[in-house]
């Protein structure tokens, strides 16, 4: 296991400035959009490059059916070696990978970047039946997309829940050439439900949190992406622990990549050490802000190009 620290002085970590969104006022929503953009990143794509729906016009949504028939969405950018990137809980492919330029950077480095929306998120179906969210279904969905696209030589990664889903896909038989587990530490892999109570409380007590609190900011982010609380509560039931013995069997060269101030899911260094071919790299920021930093996309490109 090797360790690299790409941390630089963080002068743009202004996630705490997020302002609330009115549920019933489009004028208020428009007025607060510059503040919303802070938590979603200091450097989103320019407005002129986006359609009226906030989607870059050159990456239309595509769909495939999961094994249980649920319709799931994905987008692609670039040409070359396939790289599947999975977003985090509450988020979307567009927010995690497109908005801050990571997908564009990776496409410029010769990758076909494939970005699914997890079930219950983004443009994917959001069924409200608990039966649509069995344990490990997110890993099953990822493997189903690999099969749908006919991928045999590819790389795989994700951020936060996407990083955990990447690990679950690896232990369930996915065989990428290289893997990226970002925004995730060892505790979040071996004890996958460690933060479930926090998210369940937010999703069941919306509108009750003190302004400026972590819960309040998390709820505000949920609103910016149009998250479905019912579907997202069900997502919690899909989480599966990965025993440390299974982690030790993952032979895929793996980059473990987190913000230097990100301790939300335990030790990233510990996760890299537990992997037979793990490498730890840090970038500026905490769990919420690191994904908005250009250093994250650069670190992934460097790892894949190494």
In short:
The protein is of the alpha/beta class and 306 residues long. The protein contains 12 helices and 9 strands. It has a 9-stranded mixed beta sheet, with helices on both faces.
Describe the protein's architecture and organization.
The structure is a single chain. Helix content is 35%, strand content 16%. With 306 residues, it is α/β, with parallel strands linked by helices. It has a single domain, classed as Rossmann fold (3-Layer(aba) Sandwich), CATH 3.40.50.1820. Helix 4 (137-149) packs across helix 5 (161-171) and helix 7 packs antiparallel against helix 9 (229-235). The chain is globular, with a radius of gyration of 18 Å.
Tell me the layout of helices and strands.
Blueprint: E1 2-5, H1 26-39, E2 62-65, E3 71-77, E4 81-86, H2 93-98, H3 102-108, E5 111-116, H4 137-149, E6 155-159, H5 161-171, E7 179-182, H6 186-190, H7 196-204, H8 214-224, H9 229-235, H10 244-247, E8 254-259, H11 268-274, E9 278-283, H12 294-305
Parallel strand pairs: 1-9, 4-5, 4-6, 6-7, 7-8, 8-9
Antiparallel strand pairs: 2-3, 3-5
Mean pLDDT: 86
Number of strands: 9
> Which range best describes the helical content: under 10%, 10-25%, 25-40%, 40-55%, 55-70% or over 70%?
25-40%
Count the helices. How many?
12
**SS-based class:** alpha/beta
CATH H-level name... which superfamily? Alpha/Beta hydrolase fold, catalytic domain
Uncertain segments are: 6-53
Which CATH first-tier class would you pick? Alpha Beta
What proportion strand?
15-25%
> Strand order, biggest sheet?
1-9-8-7-6-4-5-3-2
CATH architecture: 3-Layer(aba) Sandwich
The biggest beta sheet is recorded as: 9 strands, mixed
* H and E string: EHEEEHHEHEHEHHHHHEHEH
The N- to C-terminal Cα distance equals: 15 Å
General form: globular
By CATH, the topology is: Rossmann fold
């Amino acid at each position: 296991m090797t360790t690299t620290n790409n941390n630089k002085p963080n002068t743009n970590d202004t996630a705490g400035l997020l302002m609330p969104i009115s549920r019933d006022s489009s004028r208020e929503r428009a007025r607060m959009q510059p503040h919303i953009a802070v938590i979603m990143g200091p450097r989103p794509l320019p407005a002129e490059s986006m359609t009226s729906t906030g989607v870059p016009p050159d990456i239309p949504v595509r769909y495939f059916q999961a094994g249980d028939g649920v319709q799931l969405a994905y987008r692609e950018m670039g040409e070359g070696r396939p790289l599947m990137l999975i977003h985090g809980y509450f988020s979307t492919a567009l927010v995690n990978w497109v908005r801050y330029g990571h997908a564009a950077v990776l496409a410029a480095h010769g990758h076909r970047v494939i970005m699914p929306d997890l079930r219950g998120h983004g443009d994917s179906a959001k069924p409200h039946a608990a039966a649509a969210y069995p344990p490990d279904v997110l890993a099953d969905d990822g493997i189903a997309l690999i099969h749908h696209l006919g991928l045999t030589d590819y790389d795989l990664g994700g951020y936060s829940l996407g990083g955990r889903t990447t690990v679950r896909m690896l232990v369930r038989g996915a065989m990428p050439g290289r893997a990226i587990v970002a925004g995730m530490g060892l505790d979040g892999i071996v004890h996958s439900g460690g933060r479930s109570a926090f998210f369940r409380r937010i999703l069941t007590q919306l509108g009750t949190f003190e302004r400026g609190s972590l819960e309040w900011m998390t709820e505000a982010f949920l609103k910016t992406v149009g998250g479905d609380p019912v579907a997202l509560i069900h997502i919690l039931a899909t989480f599966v622990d990965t025993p440390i013995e299974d982690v030790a069997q993952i032979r895929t060269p793996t980059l473990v990549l987190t913000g230097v101030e990100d301790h939300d899911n335990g030790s990233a260094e510990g996760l890299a050490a537990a992997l037979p071919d793990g490498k730890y790299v840090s970038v500026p920021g905490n769990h919420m802000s690191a994904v908005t930093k250009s250093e994250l996309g650069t670190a992934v490109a460097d790892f894949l190009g190494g």
